[in-house]
Amino acid sequence: MAMLATFWIVLLVALNAPAGNGQSVQTDPSKSGFVGDTVELKCLFINGKPPVKISQVTWQKLINGTKQNVAIANPALGVSVLTPFKDRVSFKHPAVRQRTPSSLEDTTIVFSSLRLSDEAAYICEYTTFPAGNRENMVNLTVFARPVTKMTLTSPTIVARTPKRKMPVATCMSANGKPPSVIKWDTTLKGEATFQETRNPNGTVTVRSNYIVLPSRETHRQKLTCIVTYRSERFTDSVILNVQYEPEVKIEGFDGNWYLNRPNVQLTCNADANPPVTVYQWKLLNGSLPNNIEIKNNTLFFKGPVTYELGGTYVCEATNSIGTRSGLVEVNVTEKPMAQGPPGGIFGILGVVVVAGLIVGVVATICMVYRRGQKPRTETDNDLTDLPPAHKPAPPPPKKKGSDMKGGLTSDEIQVVHLDKEDEIQKIPLQPPYYDMAQSESTAFTDKPNSGHKDCDVQYAELDTAALASSPSPRSSVQTAGDLVETLGTKSYRPQLTL
């Protein structure tokens, strides 16, 4: 009884004692962690002057206004952790665990294997003497990573008639805290639905279904689900497996089946999932010809084409989903139909290009030829347009009689020995020079010769009669003047005729 009375006296003194100078408790404002993680809750006692004595440190959990003890550190009684936290909470500082009184300034606790139920506000309370109690609080938030998965709503999706929409894939983010955000990534046309379910432990499950109209176009299409949880991102994909009836098409008739054409056939191609198991051929308004051989999905016509092969052929393809058919109308002609140019439009373009090249080459040759056959008059005109330094020297002026004798040099004189009259006709006379200048007797024009004929240079004929009447036919011409008198009065000048 005496000890109990002493305890109460000490307690009353501690409660009524004046507050110490500068004592405080420091904690983190908040802490967070994921389920299963380990987190530290800091608690430090800042002593003042004069220092006070720490009697006890208590960690408490505050739930709905009610405090629940978690762990206690007492210098005399040691350390104790209550049953709900016994295996998951411990004091971080070793001196506290060894019950050293001077080491209670740091009473940080370590939470391991966090649970969602650990989320709460925690109070660190110091009991001192004679300053009394000092405390501070930290809020602990516990997150839960969701479990994300994507599945087909059914292992096999069947496209039936009449067509109707149905969910083909489900994306789920289960037991997340906070809830996740789901999006779809696909080129497949459809719509998505979303649903959230709050679980008793505080987590949320998000579910999304993707709804499409099953058909052969949706078969083997890819669906990707994107789940965003806080700063993390998860993706998952599935490939749709859609079963549908056969889509039938008959190939082999090119519209040109004519009499006696060999080696013709018809093939029944069917797109189906699962694959076609049975093919059946029919001929409307009749029976199949006798010269037909059926192998798998192909009709082989033995022998040449006859009029009996004409008609409407039907192919029925069947799989486990259903039966669909296709048909083709075969017409037989007497003679082969005219075929288009090789290569179709590309063949036509090729012919046009080749023809254009040929025309271009011919035009080029003509232009080159015309330039090579340019009339000499144009050349003369070009020369008249040259500057004085480049023009050819004009011929010396003509002189009559004795004037001409003194004006010619020895290089300009042609000496001819006239022995006989017939020999004079055989000797070709050369002009003393070629007059490049314009003359009154020669017509020049800038217009091209429309007839494209070569220019003909005609020389004036010798007056043989004048030569015959010469008094001395056998004498030699010694001077230019004698030569002129012998040849007569006709001038010897080239004439240009177009």
3D architecture notes:
With about 500 residues, the chain is of the alpha+beta class. It contains 8 helices and 30 strands. A 6-stranded mixed beta sheet has the order 2-11-10-5-6-7. The longest helix has 28 residues. It is elongated and about 125 Å long. The termini are far apart.
SSE class: alpha+beta
Shape: elongated
- Please tally the β strands and state the result: 30
Give the amount of beta strand, in percent: 35-45%
- What strand line-up does the widest sheet have? 2-11-10-5-6-7
Number of H- or I-type helical stretches: 8
Distance between the termini: 161 Å
Radius of gyration: 61 Å
Task: Please specify the SSE layout and strand pairing.
Blueprint: H1 2-16, E1 24-26, E2 30-34, E3 39-41, E4 44-46, E5 53-63, E6 66-74, E7 78-81, E8 89-91, H2 94-97, E9 109-111, E10 120-129, E11 132-143, E12 147-152, E13 157-158, E14 166-176, E15 181-185, E16 191-198, E17 204-212, E18 222-229, E19 232-239, E20 242-251, E21 257-258, E22 264-273, E23 278-283, E24 292-295, E25 298-301, E26 311-318, E27 323-330, E28 332-333, H3 345-372, H4 376-384, H5 402-407, H6 421-426, E29 456-459, H7 464-468, H8 480-487, E30 494-497
Parallel strand pairs: 2-11, 13-20, 21-28
Antiparallel strand pairs: 1-4, 3-9, 5-6, 5-10, 6-7, 8-9, 10-11, 12-14, 14-17, 15-18, 16-17, 18-19, 20-22, 22-25, 23-26, 24-25, 26-27, 29-30
